[in-house]
Amino acid sequence: MSCVLIGVGVFILRFVPGAAILPSFVDFISIPMQEISNKVVDSASDVVTTNEKTTEEYEKEIEKLKAENRRMRTIMIDYYDMKRENAQYLKFYSLKKQNKSLYFKMATVVSRDPNELFYGFTLDKGKNEGINVNDPVITENGLIGRVYSVTANSCKVKSILSPDFKMGVFNTATLDSGVISGKKSLADDNLTAMMYISSQNKMNVDDIVVTSGLGGMCPKGMAVGKVKEIKQDDYDSSFYAVIEPFDDVRNIIDVFVVTGFSGKGDIVTDALS
Amino acid sequence: MQSFYTVVRYLAYLIEILVFFIIEQSPTFPLKTNGLFPTLLVPAAVVIALFEGEKVGTIFGLIIGVILDIGYSGTLGVCSVLMACMGFFVGTLSRKVIRCNFFTSMITLCISTLIFYLVHFAFYYLLQGYSDILYTLTTHYLPRFFYTILVSPIIYFFNRSFAINIKGKEA
Questions:
Q1: Do A111 and B26 touch (CB under 8 A)?
Q2: B131: which chain A residues are within 8 Å (Cβ-Cβ)?
Q3: CA A35, CA A164: separation in Å to the nearest integer?
Q4: Are the Cβ atoms of B74 and A156 closer than 8 angstroms?
Q5: Do B29 and B23 form a contact (C-beta atoms < 8 A)?
Q6: B chain contacts of residue A253, beta-carbon cutoff 8 Å
Q7: What is the mean pLDDT of residues A78-104?
């Protein structure tokens, strides 16, 4: 019976015209379904990897990634340090280019004593780096202090805002001379005073004040600040100019200590102490 | 055993002094407002003297005074002598005169801090011949005095925990 049925079926498909559409009809239904099932299987195989790892392997991989992360973090820290050092070297180079006769060392402010009234600070370089007492301390913008105490690996700096910091200066525009000496009321606003200027002075606001180089303590022509105001002293009839340094001395971090310059003279340390 | 706890306690005080010194000297510490910062070491010296007595108070006062001098000018001077004397007097006071509790400790701290700032002002500003005396007193020393008193309770309870917890059983 089954053989008869098979034989009839083959005869119909082979010899009856129009019977060939039957396989096409079957394909019409089955092929889309096959396509869908193939897609589902492919998606499933993406999710479920055939190469399955054990818990220990995952733990090892996590440890490896953590170590990699730590290494990257160290590289990032080194990168920021190098970036900062590079910026300092750039300042060093531009300063050296402008002042070929200067010899200086880069230093960083490491501490500021809260009892220090005039914003003095301590640097991380000392005698071992060739720094001596009375060496000027500058930034790329100008003078900000001088060294008054040195140990092997650090030095203390008296800022330009201190009354103990005395330096001969002059006005580049009018050639009026004076002495830089700070006051507490001015120091809190990052200002200092140019004392003992003549009553016939021709100074104006925004004039630039530079060091005179007298005494051999500081190179001549080092920028100190600009004139903000000219006032009469409260206790005598002399005039003084309020000078604004080109840097915020109260918050400075990176500085240069001038260890040598042309014109550096013998300083009478007794007179300055 | 008692001496072991004593040594540990003194080591704890030394570490505390070192940490306070580093915090005070830090140029970028967040607690600094308008360039003002409390003096943490002076309350520390007073509280140590309050809890430990005159001998230990004198020694730690001297240590703190030397540190203050080194941090400020690098030369030993006023602060060393002042803090040693302060340690002695406060230690004697706590042993013989007053009963050490929060109220009496705060009063002692206020008076000691005021004396410290007045002496500092006299020696490091007045006698140096600087101008703007009243300005400095009102804008620098007085605010710092109040700022120091503000943080003193924290230092008091911190040291009290050392004195109470790092102490062996009394025989």
A1: yes
A2: 163, 183-184, 234-235
A3: 91
A4: yes
A5: yes
A6: 27
A7: 80
Tell me phi and psi for residue A259, to 5 degrees. Answer: -95, -15
Contact (Cβ atoms closer than 8 angstroms) between residue A247 and residue A139: yes
User: B54-107: per-residue pLDDT in tens?
Assistant: 999 999 999 999 999 888 776 668 899 999 999 999 999 998 888 888 999 999
Answer yes or no: are the C-beta atoms of B100 and B50 closer than 8 Å: yes
Q: Report the largest interatomic distance among the alpha carbons of chain B, rounded to a whole angstrom.
A: 59
Tokens coding A259: 């260890």
SS3 at position B104:
helix
Write down the mean pLDDT value for chain A. Answer: 84
The CATH code belonging to domain A102-259 is 2.40.10.350
- Tell whether the model's pLDDT for residue A268 goes beyond 60: no
**By the 8 A CB rule, do A233 and A239 touch?**
yes
Question: What single-letter amino acid sits at B97?
Answer: V
Interface of B with A in 69-108 (CB under 8 A): 71-74
Q: Which residues of B touch A185 (CB under 8 A)?
A: 132, 135
